[in-house]
Design goal:
It contains eleven helices and eight strands. The chain is α/β, with parallel strands linked by helices. The chain has two domains: 162 residues, Rossmann fold (3-Layer(aba) Sandwich), CATH 3.40.50; 133 residues, Rossmann fold. Strands 2-1-3-4 form a four-stranded parallel sheet, with helices on both faces. It has a four-stranded parallel sheet with strand order 6-5-7-8, sandwiched between helices. The protein is globular, with a radius of gyration of 20 Å. The two termini are 23 Å apart.
């Protein structure tokens, strides 16, 4: 008797694979409006500034998806799991992943996003697109909405924090957790994003034995509407000028892999601010394809499948 094939749609924001794709990617983010030459030059410059350019960003996601498929099939051999990528702003798009499942004869699927914290404006949007396409093609799709308090995820984040703290040689350190900002209107909608981020940050801080910690937002969009704050760049300046903080450990808890918001916004932009202020900044290592993170994803997919 053959095993039931289960499709797993692994969704993420997406990134261009090479420099020539940056303009199309940026245009998609801007809902079909091409960036100005200045905007394009700035974004391209950010990609060029991070070591190795664009290529490692997509490779991180590829490794995560490959590791998830291997882990699911090893841990749950009663099924035949097939993982597919679905990206928000680059090929293969979310709809492409679902279409490929249909071509492969997949009838039942689970969707999961490479982001632990739910917002209707982020993960909610991914799920909406995936459901629309799966309904159209007759695939039974259910999606994991969040996994921000999964024990393996918290264990790995705590290990990352404790490891990074050792770089300060026992000196007093201020801990900052950060995540991608979203338009502030989500608060009026009762969106759980901020609460989930604070909940997982608090759990990690307690597990790591950290008493002095705070939360900041990063990478806000440049739009007319207000975004969630305070911004990490303002927080760093305030800590220096008002509290004379010398050492900062930043944990970008809202991000699971090395990409532009970590490698540029933190490692280059925040690092430059801290150097200018005479502060010592370190950040926790990204989760990437660490087995504990992949097992978190595997657990969530399997639990939803068995419901």
């Amino acid at each position: 008797m053959s095993k039931e094939q289960i499709g797993v749609l692994v969704m993420s924001y997406g990134t261009p694979e090479k420099k020539e794709q940056v303009e199309a990617y940026y245009t998609h983010i801007r809902r079909g409006n091409p960036p100005t030459p200045e905007q394009l030059a700035e974004l391209t410059g950010r990609y060029e500034a991070i070591a190795g350019g664009v290529f490692p960003l997509r490779e991180n996601t590829n490794r995560q998806v490959e590791a998830l498929q291997e882990t699911l099939n090893r841990e749950h051999p009663e099924y035949d799991f097939r993982c597919y990528q679905g990206l928000k702003h680059a090929s293969p798009f979310i709809e492409d992943g679902i279409s490929q499942m249909a071509k492969d004869g997949i009838k039942r699927a689970i969707g999961i996003v490479l982001a632990p914290h739910y917002s209707v404006m982020s993960i909610g949007g991914y799920i909406q697109r995936a459901k629309a396409k799966s309904d159209e093609l007759g695939i039974e799709l259910t999606c994991v909405e969040s996994y921000h308090m999964h024990s393996k995820l918290l264990t790995l984040l705590t290990e990352r924090v404790q490891s990074a703290l050792q770089r300060f040689d026992g000196e007093k350190v201020r801990m900052i957790f950060s995540a991608h900002s979203l338009p502030a209107k989500i608060l009026e909608m009762g969106d759980p994003y901020q609460d989930q981020l604070l909940e997982s940050s608090k759990a990690v801080a307690e597990a790591a034995g950290i008493e002095e910690w705070q939360f900041a937002w990063q990478s806000a969009g440049r739009t007319a509407v207000p975004w969630l704050g305070p911004d990490i760049t303002d927080v760093l300046a305030t800590l220096h000028h008002e509290e004379q903080v010398k050492n900062v450990l930043l944990c970008p808890i809202g991000f699971v892999s090395d990409h532009l918001e970590v490698l540029y916004d933190v490692d280059i932009e925040c690092q430059a601010i801290c150097k200018g202020l005479g502060m010592h900044l370190e950040r926790t290592e990204s989760l990437n394809d660490h087995p504990l993170y992949i097992e978190t994803l595997s657990d969530c997919v399997y639990q939803l499948l068995k419901q």
